[in-house]
Amino acid sequence: MKIRRVLSSFLVSMSLVAAVPMMTGCEEVADALQGASDGETASALKQALQIGVSTAVEKLSTDGYMAEVATKIGLPEGAVTAFEVYNSLASTDAGKSIVSAVGLGDNLQENLVTAFNNAATDAAPESAKILADEVTGLTIQDAKDILFGADNAATVKLETDTRSDLMAAFHPTITESMQNVGVGEVNAVTLWSKFAKGNNALYDALNSTAGKTALQLASISGKIPASTMNKISSVQPVDSDISDYVTGRALDGLFTKIAEKELGIRTNVAERTNDLLRRVFGQLDK
Q: What is the Cα–Cα distance from 69 to 6, expressed in whole angstroms?
C-alpha cells in the first residue's frame, strides 16, 4: 500500500509539472521559440527601412546620382534611339541633307544626362521627410514573412505600398530642381525642351516625302547603314514635359540604395546598431 501511495503521489507531481507550460500560455512559448514577437519584428523592419532611407538620402545628396551605375539616370529609350539615328545620319553625306535642320547636336545627349542627374541630386535631401513619413505609416502585418524573405523584402514592401503616393509627393520637388539645376546656366527643363523640339523635327524630316525618298535611295546604295534604317520607325514625337520620368528614376535610385542598406543589416552584425535590430535580425544568422 505504501508503494502504491508513493507511486500515486509521483504521478500526480509529474502531471502538475507537465501542465506548467500550458499554464504559462501558448503565446509565450511560441515567442520564446521564435525569438521575437510580430510587433518587435515589424518595428525592427521599420527601423531598418528608416536607416536605409537616411543612408540613401545622405549618399545620393553627397556623391550624386551619377556616382554609381545603379543609380545613374539615363535617357528614355526613345530619346536614346533618336540620338542614335541622328548621329548616324549626320555622319554620312546622304543623311546630312535630311537632318541639317534638326538641332540635336552640341553635346545635347550628354548634357541631358548630366542635367537629369544633377536635378535628382539636388532634390534628394527633400525626399528624406517624404520617405520617412511613408515608413512611419507603413503597416507590416506579414512581418515574419518579410524578415525571412528575400534580401530586399522590406524595401519591396515599402515600394509596393507607397510608390504612387511617393510619385505624387516627390514630383513637385523634382520639377523645382529641374527648373533650377542643369548644366552650367542651362536648366534641365530648357535642355529637354530643346531635345523635344529637335526630336520632333527629326520625326517630321524622316517622314516627309523628300525624307522618305532620300532614305530609300541611300538605303539602296548602301550609303546609310541597315541598322540605322531599322531604327528610323522607332523615332516618335515626344512631349516637352519629362518630369514624371525623372521623378520615377530618382525614386528608383533611392530604393536601390535603401535595398543595399537592408541587405547590410540582414547580413552584417555590425550594421545592427541597437538591441532590437540585433534581436530580430539575429534570427537570420541561425
A: 78
Is 8's pLDDT higher than 80?
no
DSSP per residue, the chain: -HHHHHHHHHHHHHHHHHHHHHHH-HHHHHHHHHSS-HHHHHHHHHHHHHHHHHHHHHHHHHH-GGGSTTT-----HHHHHHHHHHHHHHTSHHHHHHHTT----TTHHHHHHHHHHHHHHHHHHHHHHHHHHHHHT---S-HHHHHTS-TTHHHHHHHHHHHHHHHHHHHHHHHHHHHH-EETTEEHHHHHHHHHHHHHHHHHHHHSHHHHHHHHHHHHHT-S-HHHHHHGGG-----S--HHHHHHHHHHHHHHHHHHHHHHHHH-GGG--SHHHHHHHGGGG-
Q: Which residues contact 143 (CB under 8 A, 6 or more apart)?
A: 38, 41, 42, 45
C-alpha–C-alpha distance, residues 257 and 277, integer Å: 19
Closest CA to 127 of 256, 258, 251: 251
Provide the grid cell at 240. 516637352
Which residues on adjacent β-strands are paired with residue 183?
A: 186
The residues pairing with 182 across neighbouring beta strands, listed in sequence order, are: 187
Q: How many residues are recorded in the chain?
A: 286
Q: Are 84 and 131 in contact (CB under 8 A)?
A: no
Three-state SS annotation for 129-153:
HHHHHHHHCCCCCCHHHHHCCCCCH
Q: Which three cell numbers stand for residue 149?
A: 524573405
- Residue 207 and residue 198 in contact, taking contact as beta carbons nearer than 8 Å: no
Read off the pLDDT of residues 78-119 as tens digits, 9 standing for 90 and up: 999 999 999 999 988 888 888 888 989 889 999 999 999 999
Determine how β-strand 186-187 pairs with β-strand 182-183.
Answer: antiparallel
Q: What is the pLDDT of residues 161-194, one digit of tens each?
A: 999 999 999 999 999 999 999 999 999 999 999 9
